[in-house]
Design brief:
seven-stranded mixed β-sheet, alpha+beta, 35% strand, Bifunctional nuclease domain, 163 residues
Length: 163
């Protein structure tokens, strides 16, 4: 199978919705939205703000398990979208005294991949095919930012694309 071209993206905003959170991602020229459940949206916001927690959350547990095995998140790749459902892979590297560097690729929800990447300050990529297929939400994000700058909270709702 040929290697897909991937593009580095940034998490531009995390916006609460009636059913969870909207993640606005993309390179400079295009923004797309992935809707996630509220708990992962909250975790991503905590990782972005580097909020201390009383107890480890699920993504913290995963990070501790990875570290115990000499592993870390190298990158997250949003690699497919079908019927408004996104798919992703978490790329992990492991290195310890028994093995030379090993790369492990895991299938995972995009929300979890994004949370782990943000937590470990790893890059997030999207395949060119996905970026070409998704709707451009750049204008929607600009309107949202302008509305928030005025101190007005936007109405929640809209069509949700799941992860």
């Amino acid at each position: 199978m040929p290697q897909q071209q991937v593009i580095l993206v940034q998490l531009k905003a995390v916006v609460p919705t009636a059913n969870g959170a909207a993640l606005f991602l993309g390179p400079d020229e295009k923004t797309f939205v992935i809707y996630v459940d509220a708990s992962v949206g909250h975790a991503i916001n905590m990782f972005l703000a580097e909020t201390p927690k009383e107890r480890p959350l699920t993504h913290d547990l995963m990070a501790h398990v990875l570290a115990a095995f000499g592993a870390k998140v190298e990158r997250a790749v949003i690699n497919d979208v079908k019927s408004s459902t996104f798919y992703a892979r978490l790329i992990i590297s492991a290195e310890n005294e028994l093995h030379q560097r090993k790369i492990i690729e895991l299938d995972a929800r995009p929300s979890d991949c994004i949370a782990m990447a943000i937590q470990q300050k790893a890059p997030i990529f999207v395949s060119r095919a996905v970026l070409d297929e998704v709707d451009d939400a750049t204008d929607a994000l600009k309107q949202l930012e302008e509305t928030r700058a005025k101190g007005v909270e936007p109405e929640e709702g809209g069509e949700e694309t799941s992860d």
